Amino acid sequence: MSLLDQLNAFAQVAELGSFTQAADRLGWPKGKVSTTIQALENHLGTRLLHRTTRKVQLTQDGLAFQDRCRDLLADVDELQTLFQRSAPELRGRVRVDMSTGAARHMVIPHLPELLQRHPKLEIEISSTDRRVDLVREGFDCVLRVGAVVDSGLIARPLGRFKMINCASPGYLARHGTPQSPDELATHLLVHYVPVLGARPDGFDIAHPDGSVRTVAMAGQVTVNNAEAYQAACLAGLGLIQAPQHGVQALIADGALVEVLPEHRAPSMPVHLLYANRRHQPQRVRAVMDWLAEVMAPHLEPWA
């Protein structure tokens, strides 16, 4: 029995939770499935499945092995269709990380189109504002806003988010509307940090000559994700600097007001980051191309 057959048998049992159903799908005798899994466990030196008379469950090692096994089988399936003239059917899992705002407002609304086009794809979306470890946490790619600091990763530039300064009408009624950067000393800023306890950057002021100055500002509230950042502004807790796409509807409705329009912060770069793999699986390349397509209407061209 080849290792590939063993992996396939394990994948079927793990998915179906039954040796009998796995045997039916594979067209094998039930006993052959059981001995194949035992041989795989002996080869790996660990137990992958808990077996009882009523059900089959994955162990912790089995759960970890299942993820890698599914990816490997998808890669093997893709390899077998590498030289077909017609486009091969994409299948397997792609794991992506992005901000909560990008996932909610830009990517997930268009996800049905991708999955209708490729019904055997499986997409895992992590939406968090923390900087995940792409390699250690098993992500295929990361959609990241801001400066790229991961020197070991490949960065594919997608464009830039135009930034805007804004506040709520209630805040401006209490504190007044700043007319120049010099007046920021009397205002509050909602502080944003990726990790609580970190030092906030302050208010970025862009000048017509292209120079940028960061002004330290007082603030009573610090948050660590974009949704809370916007909510704090809507609650009248201070000024924020946010991507225009995320606040333009609120400004149009009057829930927020733009301030200091001539001193917007510099546009923020947006990249797709991925590990330096010589041969990227076709399913991953396809999803990255799709993400670039979905994000394009929200971005300024890269310059």
Describe the structure.
The model has no long low-confidence stretch (mean pLDDT 87). By secondary structure, this protein is α/β, with parallel strands linked by helices. A hairpin with a 4-residue loop joins strand 1 (49-51) and strand 2. A five-stranded mixed β-sheet has the order 4-3-5-14-6. The chain is built from ten helices and 14 strands.
Overview in brief:
With 303 residues, the chain is α/β, with parallel strands linked by helices.
Chain oligomer state: single chain
Distance between the termini: 56 Å
The whole-angstrom Rg is 25 Å
Q: Spatial order of the strands in the main sheet?
A: 4-3-5-14-6
Treating each run of at least 4 consecutive H or I residues as one helix, how many helices?
10
* Poorly predicted ranges: none
Structural class: alpha/beta
User: How much helicity do the residues have?
Assistant: 25-40%
Question: Would you spell out the secondary-structure blueprint of this structure?
Answer:
Elements: H1 3-16, H2 19-26, H3 30-44, E1 49-51, E2 56-58, H4 60-80, E3 91-98, H5 100-107, H6 111-117, E4 120-127, E5 141-145, E6 153-161, E7 163-167, H7 169-175, E8 191-192, E9 203-206, E10 212-215, E11 222-223, H8 226-234, E12 240-243, H9 244-253, E13 257-258, E14 268-275, H10 282-295
Parallel strand pairs: 3-4, 3-5, 8-11
Antiparallel strand pairs: 1-2, 5-14, 6-14, 7-12, 7-13, 9-10
